From TrEMBL, chain A:
Origin superkingdom: Eukaryota
Descriptive protein name: GPI-anchor transamidase component GPAA1
Pathway: Glycolipid biosynthesis; glycosylphosphatidylinositol-anchor biosynthesis
A Pfam family that the UniProt record links to this protein: Gaa1
Species per Swiss-Prot/TrEMBL record: Anabas testudineus (Climbing perch)
Alphabetized UniProt keyword annotations: Disulfide bond, Endoplasmic reticulum, Glycoprotein, GPI-anchor biosynthesis, Membrane, Transmembrane, Transmembrane helix
Assigned GO CC terms: GPI-anchor transamidase complex
Automatic annotation (TrEMBL), chain B:
Cross-referenced InterPro entries: PIG-T
Signal peptide positions on this chain: 1-26
Annotated region (Disordered), positions in chain: 29-99
GO BP of this protein: attachment of GPI anchor to protein
Comp. bias (Polar residues): 82-94
Compositionally skewed regions (Low complexity) per UniProt: 43-57
Primary gene name: PIGT
Protein name per UniProt: Phosphatidylinositol glycan anchor biosynthesis, class T
GO CC field: GPI-anchor transamidase complex
Swiss-Prot/TrEMBL keywords: Signal
Compositionally biased spans, kind Basic and acidic residues: 59-81
Originating species: Anabas testudineus
């Protein structure tokens, strides 16, 4: 700090920073990307380890014997599901009661803001059925949840069968210290949302549900089960939840430990673990796995029924059974034993899972990158914004070299006009508000006037407003203050750059992946845009790096990572459905990505657009 | 003087016990001076209590007596047996009356779910009176440890329960004696006590030692003085709640170390009588376990001229059908307790086993072996119940095998339990660690009658209740409580106390909600496992519930028509106390795993970063003039002295 308080040396440092600003920014950007790519390199990552003592050293035995019977129950469930054409509520209630559980039901209705074309639903009515296994001699203060969605068609019957089988087996054991809630939810996430809101008696999304009759106290952990075949080759663990929240890493560790113990193949993001980290293909495999996690987390949507638990500080994960063409198969008894082991260990918990990390990325199931390792990558990108801001600041305060009447100049500089800066800010934010509100508001009008469905209407309106934002009168300052000054755009850019820095910083703290992806595209824009660069080329680059195009590229990139590349046509359709899903996620579950983009990121990007066309 | 009388009675007592071998209890010839005083007091006392019963929950006492009277009158066959088995109760007045009396009984109720409920009650009566400061040094059946506690701390009534598990009212019906999960202690002190809080503190510590429990954690932060919910159950005219202390420890875990001292209070220990069934490996292999000790003063006889102390030890346990293996609907004493009965406690004046066969009037639900000819009827919890009775003081009960192994075998699993008229539940609503909302739901399942309930909530200070958000709604409408007693908490000193008298409309759910804020504790105030959460004790709901007997006015099942036109007043309502589940609430918790790092980092940032940055931002820096030479400075001083401007 002595360095800064000495005016001479401060001057030297500042002139160094301003002179070398562009190269330093370039280096920082490169370093940030390189750091991020390095995260997937195995020697740079940490092995996962169990932090929670209550789950680590305690031995449990897995004895679940009744896999075949569980499958039979699953088939019975399937038959009743077909007969009832939906959730066989009565049969489930009776079956759970016969297994000695306290059974309750909850009905719910939800009218979507516009029809969901992916799942073909608009007015959703359903019933959740759950049975509570009361732990002997426990005062109903703690509970664990095992859930299986009742999906349409032939999906997930085995999961419900296994759930009922486990319920029967668990009921006969004396060692439970926490109540166990067996939940079969209809309409996947909507049912889960209704149940969780009912359980915690909150209403964040305006859904109608009937109040719950039975509870088990505060839920400590939850697993959601998805199983659609009698035998499986591997189990996949899904962690990403609403708004990019992740469960405590110990839950993943627990799953991994039991897969190792019982000998089940386990994957994350559908990717097996490889041992050849030093080869190029091994490294790219790890990068793929990690990038998939980053993309899923950045999307901010729940990637399984567990995703909604995380809002309530309940550690949850989804376990998916995958049946591929591999030779080695695992039967239901083994999966039952795995779940039994996990629940027995969770039952041993004395405190909520809190010992291990909540912020992490996983390049494979046995390795993780903690927040301390990945944050520098983002920090290197964010520092570019600060450097640019410093540069602009210095340019603004240092008087121009050649001044004859310095007094007047200084006076003019000391009071930069607020109005030219404020108007673009207000206009771009109003555009953002329009983007947030209008698509759903005007869907009826759009359907009336154009030959489109409601969903298309919403998505196309959103895109139209987004595009219209580019054409807005950006040079309003000329009406107010005559000719735009050199100083005007600098002030505006200074504000925009700092705004972006704060915005990205906050986003990255909550959802690192989203923050990083946005930083990756928006930081270069923020760094190079001035009114003096070639207009057409810059405008093209600016559009390419805008949030909407970032989303488009992300869709293609995600498909590529999943090894399901799509043509441009399909990709475009996928892109449209992703936008509609994003809007739906926001209104159904309270996902924050859509409002973040519409209300904050897009207006911020518009400011840079504004600077480009500054006259 | 009193001490001398005591010693003389001790001598007498020894003589008696030597000479009279068969009559178990010892007797007293000369009443002590204290007794006379009480006799003078008593008429007033009894009238007082009767006034109370008309309005307040103290009816419980009367209800129990009524039950006993019923038993005596209804069970014709039983009275004969009683006459032979318990000579004390019918001996003519010329024979000196017994001084101590001990009774034991076990009630077994098969439940519809296939579970089984066993309730032990041991009652020790002690005809002494040290309420007025008499010193008693001789103890016979009454445990000395408790007797000393009563006299030292001037206790009028003491109720303590240890419970592991939560009573599932919807499946098991009402318990004979309700208790909340964890430990509960409530004590009425005598009105002569001046420093009640001091006494209470000492008493909890002593009881903690006696019962091997963490009762010493009871302090002012979890003690309340309910104004209406806990009335004395024994005789007495003290209703000033300054002498009442109530505390619960919802986190207390009950295990064998609490059972052993409890068993030691019994006259026969666990050596004989029903107590041999109390084996911990079976009692704690159950769904619910609760043990309690109740001490209260009761009348000695009908006239209530003198009082005696009643010690009632109860133990309730529910065995689970599923976890006890096989899933066969069959229970026996051996399967439940891994013991069979072979004898009554020799010191007991009565020792009986009751099996509740109300649900099985024709014997088609379950079969009971060995069969017994003795039947008894009683009104329990507003419901007329029928019991098969096994008298353990009769040799014939044990048969040729010289052991009694009751066997209950279900024939069908049909049938539904009558829904309990009153039940309640409670939960915490909301998410996040800043605020929350406590919801208490009270269900009135009576089809056409409303009744009032008294709700008692004691909430620790670290949940800061927003009392202005208190709402009571039933059937969608606001329900104004007719009585509210609220005592706000003081941080680190005392908890919130909220008592309300609410009228529950028929067939309705009444919801009481109140919002709270979670306090941030000081870092030393967190428990060693802060992420487990913090407990909030059960709320207590006391009520006079309309009786089920009075409910079926239309169905005249096997009763003469003349008996049931007017609903009979005697049984029209009964006292019920139910407890909701305790709550587990998470408070904002710092990350204790690396406090060192956090402290260091924060201090560094503040000290280095902030200080210098502030410095840089607030000061303006200018290049300093090079300092003038020595000669110039001297010249300047001289010029200053001369009054000329410096160079």
């Amino acid at each position: 700090m002595g360095l800064l308080s000495d005016p001479n040396r401060r001057q030297a440092l500042i002139s160094l920073l301003t002179r070398l600003n562009a190269p330093i920014c370039m280096v920082c950007y490169m370093a940030g990307v390189a750091w991020f790519m390095g995260l997937a390199f195995e020697p740079f990552t940490l092995r996962t380890y169990m932090s929670e003592n209550a789950m680590g050293s305690t031995m449990v035995e897995e004895r679940f014997p009744a896999g075949e019977r569980a499958l039979a129950t699953g088939r019975e469930f399937a038959a009743h599901k077909k007969k009832a054409d939906g959730m066989p509520v009565d049969w489930l209630v009776k079956t759970m009661q016969a297994r000695g559980l306290e059974v309750f039901t909850q009905s719910f209705t939800r009218k979507l803001p516009f029809p969901d074309e992916n799942k073909e639903r608009y007015l959703v009515k359903g019933t959740n059925v759950y049975g509570i296994l009361r732990a002997p001699r426990a005062p109903r203060t703690e509970a664990l949840v095992l859930s299986a969605p009742c999906s349409p068609g032939d999906n997930n019957n085995q999961a419900v069968g296994l759930l009922l089988g486990l319920a029967q087996y668990f009921r006969n054991q004396i060692f439970w210290a926490k109540d166990i809630i067996f939940l079969v939810n209809e309409h996947d996430l909507i049912g889960m949302q209704a149940w969780l809101e009912g359980y915690h008696h909150t209403n964040t999304t305006g859904m109608d549900w009937s109040p719950l009759q039975g509870r088990g106290g505060s839920i400590q952990a939850a697993l959601s089960l998805e199983l659609s075949s009698d035998v499986i080759t591997s189990l996949d663990l899904v962690l990403e939840g609403l708004n990019g929240q992740l469960p405590n890493l110990d839950l993943a560790n627990l799953f991994y430990a039991f897969c190792q113990k019982i000998g089940v193949l386990c994957t994350i993001q559908g990717k097996l673990q490889r041992n050849d980290w030093d080869s190029v293909s091994g490294y790219s495999h790890a990068v793929q796995t990690m990038m998939l996690m980053v993309m899923k987390q950045a999307s901010g949507r729940p990637w399984g029924d567990h995703g909604l638990f995380l809002r309530y500080h309940i550690e949850a994960a989804t376990i998916k059974g995958i049946n591929s063409f591999r030779q080695f198969k695992t039967d239901t008894t083994t999966i039952g034993r795995l779940l039994e082991g996990m629940y027995r260990k969770l039952n041993n918990l004395l405190e909520r899972l809190h010992q291990s990390y909540f912020f992490y990325l996983m390049p494979s199931l046995s390795h993780f990158v903690s927040i301390g390792y990945y944050m520098p990558a983002f920090g290197l990108l964010a520092v570019i914004l600060l450097l640019r801001a410093l540069d602009l600041w210095v340019q603004l305060v240092t008087p121009p070299q050649r001044t004859e009447d310095g007094v007047a100049d200084i006076e003019q500089q000391s009071s930069p006009e607020v109005l030219p800066v404020l108007t673009p800010l207000v206009i771009s934010h109003l555009t953002g508000v329009a983007l947030y509100i209008l698509p759903i508001r005007f869907q009826d009008m759009a359907v009336e006037h154009f030959p489109v469905s409601e969903t298309e209407a919403v998505v196309l309106t959103a895109i139209a407003i987004y595009t219209a934002g580019l054409a807005l009168p950006h040079n309003t300052h000329r009406l107010l203050a005559g000719e735009g000054t050199e100083q005007g755009w600098k002030v505006l850019k200074l504000v925009a750059v700092l705004y972006l820095a704060v915005l990205l910083g906050c986003t990255a703290l909550i959802n690192f992946s989203l923050g990083f992806i946005l930083a990756l595209t928006l930081v270069p824009v923020a760094a190079f845009v001035t009114p003096h660069v070639p207009k057409v080329l810059s405008a093209f680059i600016l559009v390419i790096l805008s949030p909407a195009c970032t989303l488009l590229f992300s869709v293609f990139f995600f498909q590529e990572l999943q090894e399901m590349p799509v043509s441009f046509q399909e990709g475009w359709l996928l892109y449209l459905s992703v936008i509609s899903q994003g809007i739906l996620d926001h209104s159904l579950y309270g996902s924050l990505v859509y409002p973040l983009i519409a209300l904050l990121v897009y207006p911020c990007w518009l400011l840079f657009w504004n600077i480009l066309f500054w006259k | 003087m009193a001490g001398r009388r005591c010693s003389s009675s001790v001598l007498l007592l020894i003589l008696w016990s030597l000479s009279v071998f068969i009559v178990v209890s010892s007797q007293e010839t000369t009443p002590t001076g204290g007794h006379h005083e009480v006799a003078a007091d008593n008429p007033q006392t009894t009238t007082e209590t009767e006034q109370q019963t008309a309005e307040q929950p103290a009816v419980e006492e009367r209800e129990w007596k009524a039950t006993e009277v019923e038993k005596a009158t209804l069970g014709d066959a039983e009275t004969d047996k009683q006459a032979t088995s318990a000579p004390g109760s019918v001996t003519p007045s010329s024979v000196p009356r017994p001084k101590d009396d001990f009774q034991e009984e076990l009630v077994i109720r098969p439940l519809h779910s296939g579970d089984i409920y066993a309730s032990f009650q041991f009652r020790t009566l002690w005809e002494t009176d040290f309420m007025k400061g008499n010193k008693v040094s001789h103890y016979r059946l009454f445990p000395k440890s408790l007797g000393q506690v009563i006299s030292k701390f001037s206790v009028r009534e003491l109720h303590i329960s240890f419970t592991q598990g939560y009573w599932r009212t919807m499946q098991w019906g009402q318990p004979f004696l309700p208790s909340p999960p964890g430990a509960e202690l409530w004590v009425w002190f005598q009105d002569t006590v001046t420093d009640v809080d001091g006494m209470w503190k000492e008493l909890t510590n002593v009881l903690s030692g006696i019962f091997c429990a963490s009762l010493n954690f009871i302090d002012s932060t979890n003690t309340v003085q309910p104004s209406a919910s806990f009335k004395p159950l024994g005789i007495g005219n003290v209703t000033d709640h300054r002498f009442l202390r109530y505390a619960t420890l919802p986190r207390e875990i009950v295990c064998t170390e609490n059972l052993t001292p409890w068993k030691k209070l019994l006259p026969c220990g666990s050596k004989a009588g029903l107590a041999i069934l109390l084996k911990s490996e079976k009692l704690f292999h159950s769904s619910f376990h609760s043990q309690a000790v109740h001490i209260r003063p009761v009348c000695q006889d009908q006239d209530c001229k003198t009082t005696s102390w009643e010690l009632r030890q109860t133990l309730n346990v529910i065995f689970d059908l599923h976890t006890s293996g096989q899933g066969k609907r069959e229970w026996s004493l051996f399967k439940m307790f891994s013991r069979t009965l072979t004898e009554a406690c020799p010191l007991a004046s009565s020792s009986k086993v009751y099996i509740d066969i109300t649900d099985d009037p024709q014997g088609d639900q379950f079969e009971l072996t060995p069969a017994t000819p003795l039947l008894s009827q009683a009104v329990v919890m507003g419901d007329r119940r029928t019991f098969s009775v096994y008298d353990l003081t009769q040799q014939i009960t044990f048969g040729t095998m010289r052991s009694l192994n009751l066997l209950i075998r279900w024939k069908s699993s049909e049938g539904h339990m009558l829904r309990p008229l009153l039940h309640a539940e409670r939960y915490v609503a909301g998410y996040g660690l800043q605020t929350g909302e406590i919801h208490t739901l009270m269900y009135n399942n009576h089809p056409y009658r409303s009744f009032p309930v008294l709700l008692l909530d004691s909430v620790p200070w670290y949940l800061r209740l927003y009392i202005h958000t208190l709402t009571v709604t039933s059937k969608g409408k606001e329900n104004t409580p007719s009585y509210i007693h609220y005592q706000p908490s003081k941080d680190r000193v005392r908890p919130h106390l909220l008592e309300m008298l609410v009228q529950l409309p028929p067939n309705s759910v009444t919801e009481v909600t109140v919002q709270f804020e979670r306090a941030l504790l000081k870092w030393t105030e967190y428990t060693p496992d802060p992420n487990h959460g913090f407990y909030v004790g059960s709320s207590v709901i006391s009520s006079l519930v309309p009786s089920i007997v009075a409910m079926d006015t239309n169905s005249s099942q096997e009763r003469p028509l003349f008996s049931n036109f007017f609903p009979c007043k005697e049984e029209s309502s009964y006292f019920v106390r139910i407890y909701t589940e305790p709550l587990l609430v998470n408070l904002p918790t710092p990350d204790f795993s690396m406090p060192y790092n956090v402290i260091c980092l924060t201090c560094t940032v503040v000290a280095v970063g902030y200080g210098s940055l502030y410095n840089l931002l607030t000061r303006s820096f200018q290049i300093e003039e090079p300092s003038p030479g020595l000669a110039k400075r001297i010249a300047n001083i001289i010029r200053k002295m001369r009054g000329v401007p410096p160079l």
